[in-house]
Structures are given as structure tokens and as C-alpha cells.
């Protein structure tokens, strides 16, 4: 799950968290001031340390290829490069509606740049006399502008990784890459002789002070619905009883998650939640039944698409809304409903969002019990991907495991399939995969079924048959362009009932979970069967 950054459960900066950030900023600023005092105005306590920079520059001079690479780094992450990166990062955050995070990025990078320029002129430390002669720098040296800008940007990236990347392994990898990048740029300044070692230390301390000071006043987390809009009118008296169904292996810290939900529920006027955990034997059906019988006014489910499917199927038709907290790898239902993947925002939507009636799909087939799905079902290549995913790899690298499995399964053999839509005559096709969807978009926003919606009472069918390996590229381009053209390579159908019969045993999947091989699937869309919480 997404980590908090340590300043409370509410959607505003608390006094305690502000004091921590201000304390960190004051410490970084004090260290910077001490360092600035020691290295400027002909003071020499750190001269011996700074002279080590000359030895490093001499060593780099003996490696021409290294020097060429260092010059590329210098140019790439200078003022122009960092300005471009800042604009791109702020733009992406704005597009994803993280306005306060975007504001923090702009404020930190702008203030760091201005402070670096002003302090350089005020302190007036000369550059090392051994710097690389190509592109000789003649302005002042302390603090390093490259170091301050990259340190500020690195601090912002680490903050965003902690906030928004839920998988610990990917988060740790991202932080390691960011820190390595910052260190590389700092080392570049010393190896080229542009700066003394204390210059890059000073620049990094200055950036940290600015970042923490800004963080004390600008909360980058998405603002809660409860904080920005009036409550929705209740159509009936409710005790606001909340039940939470949690797949415990999908969150890193169950205690932290429980504390967060309880605090946000209390803030939004809900009762203290009751808690139930899914198991391997019961992935959510029994828990959902108990929540309904107990009279819950809202059931919050935290898990992957499989857990969400089981809970939704049990609560369909009860009139009890389901709040989805996406914590899996795909989270396709949440993505198509617009539910944020950031845990705190998803909880906020569940507690304070509005109800939407969406369709469910009844499904059956040979060798499986009749059941339901919320997202999509498939036979062929897509199901082979699900079958081929290594669970250990999936736990470590998340959705990348599906890419690995997909590359292995690209040339899954074509099979003959008979497809019947509603009461029409069956049609024969050759296909590598057939997908029947209740939603339109896959991960990364890929519009496999661009016309599919969750509440239209209609199922969308796509039949894919690339004849050669390279034909997958054509298929991908047509999907991304949302091309309306249909042919034998990519065909589309719609209807409220769909039956698929394959000529041979074929892998099958429901909502990303493999259900084994078989020759038949039948599906019927049940219009408006389930209430779910969605953003207002």
C-alpha cells in the first residue's frame, strides 16, 4: 500500500508534522551556514578536505572517455535540463490532478534556484583553479547549482515515490536510482574540477533545507473529498456502520492501514469499522455475507481484482455500496471507475464519494461453477498470460511479471471458436484470444474495448488473430488509436449475452485470475446490479 509521509492521518499538515519539517529545515540550514562560514572569506579549516578534489580531477583527466561522459552529465543536468525536468514533473502531476504536489515541485525548485544564485554572489567563493578547461566556469563556486537543483529534485522524487508507489520493492528500487543519480551529478562536479567537495555538500544541504521548509506549509497529498465539498444528502437515516474486508497480504503494514481507515472514518462521521480478513479458503464471499447480515451501511474492500470480485458478487442486489481500495497488481475495476490508486485518496472516495450503479456479468462454462465477473473474461492468449505469471516474480516486480509472461505467450496458437451474441446465429472465427469486457481500459490506459462502459447493460467482445509475430505491433497500434476498423485480425462485437465455444481446450481467465482450461464460456450482463463508491 502507499505509505504516508509521517504527518498524521488527516488531509492537512498537522502542527506536529509541521514542527518536524521545520526542525529538519532548521538543522539543514544550520549545517549549511556552518559550512559556508568555514569555506569562505579565506578561512581554511576544510582546505585539506577540498584539496582531495584536485586528486580526483587529476585521476579523471587520465580517462578521456570518462571525461566525455562527465561533460554530457554536466550539460544534461544544468539549468536548462533541470528546468525541463521540473516542468515535465509538475505537468504530469497536474494531469493526474495532484495540484498541491505540483505546486510543491514548482516552489521547491524555484526557491532553490534563487537561493543558490543569491548565496553564490553573497559568499563569493572562487572556483577551483584545476577545473576542466573545456567550458571553463568563471562565476562563483559555493554552493554548487548542479548539486542543489538535483538534490531538490531528488528529494521531491523520493517523496512522490513514498507517497504514490505502493509496492515496496519498486519503491526501494526507485529511491535507489534517484539517490544514485544525485550522487552521480555531485561526483561529476568534483571530477571535472568545477567545484570543491564542500560546494556540492553545501548545495545539497541548501536544497534539503528548502524542501523541508516548503513541506512544512504545502501538503502534497491529494485533498480529501470531505475537506473540499459539502456532504451528499442522505436519502434515508443511516447509522453509518462501516465494515472493512481486507486481504492482509496486499498491504505492507496492516496496523498502519487499520489506523488510517479508523482515523479517516471518524473524521468523516462513520462508526468505528468492523474488520474481517480474507483467507486462501475464503477470498471474500463469507466476509461480505457477514457484513451484509450485520447491517453495514458501507462495505470497504481492500485487495486485488479477485478479492474485489468475490465481495462485489456477494453484495450485488443488496443495495449496500462497496468502497474499493485497490491494492493489487491490475486494479482494473478501480481504474475504470476513476478510483485513485493512492490508498489515502481511495479511502476518502469510499467514505465520502457518491454511489454508482454498475453492471455485473454472470458467467459459466464447462468445468467451473457459475460465478460472476466485474471486469473481463478471456479465452486464449490473455488467459495464457495469467497462467504463466510466476507469483514470486509478481510479488517482487508487480505488473512487470505480466509483461514477462506476455512475451513468452505472444505466439499462443490460434484456435477455432464459435461465438454467439444474444439470439443471433453463431459465427466462426480463428483467434489467438477472445476477450469479453465490462470495462474499456487495461493497465497503462490501453483502450482494448474503448466503447465499453460499466453501466450500459452491454458486453463488448474483441476477437484478435494476428497471423504473424510482427502482426502484434499492428494490433497494438490499432488498439492505441482506438481504430474503428474491424477485420479478421481484430474484430469487435457487442451484446448482452455472449457464448464462446472453442474447438480445443483453451486457457480461460476471469478478472485476471486463471480458471483453468476448457472449451466454453457463457456470459450475461446484469444491468445496474451493484452499487459502488466513485469520486464526486
Produce a short descriptive summary.
46% of the residues lie in helices and 20% in strands.
Helix and strand arrangement:
Layout: H1 15-39, H2 47-61, H3 64-76, H4 79-95, H5 99-123, H6 145-164, H7 168-191, H8 197-215, H9 225-228, E1 242-246, H10 254-267, E2 274-277, H11 285-293, E3 298-303, H12 305-315, E4 322-326, H13 332-337, H14 343-352, E5 354-365, E6 368-373, E7 376-380, H15 381-388, H16 391-397, H17 400-409, E8 415-421, E9 427-431, E10 433-437, E11 459-464, H18 471-480, E12 490-495, E13 497-510, E14 513-534
Parallel strand pairs: 1-2, 1-3, 3-4
Antiparallel strand pairs: 5-6, 5-14, 7-10, 7-13, 8-9, 8-13, 10-11, 11-12, 13-14
Helix pairs in contact: 1-8, 3-7, 4-5, 5-6, 5-8, 6-7, 6-8, 10-14, 11-12, 15-17
Q: For the terminal residues, how far apart are their CA atoms?
A: 23 Å
Relative strand content: 15-25%
- Could you describe the largest sheet, including whether it forms a barrel? 10 strands, antiparallel
Number of helices: 18
Low-pLDDT segments, ≥5 res? 1-11
**How many structurally independent domains?**
3
Shape: elongated
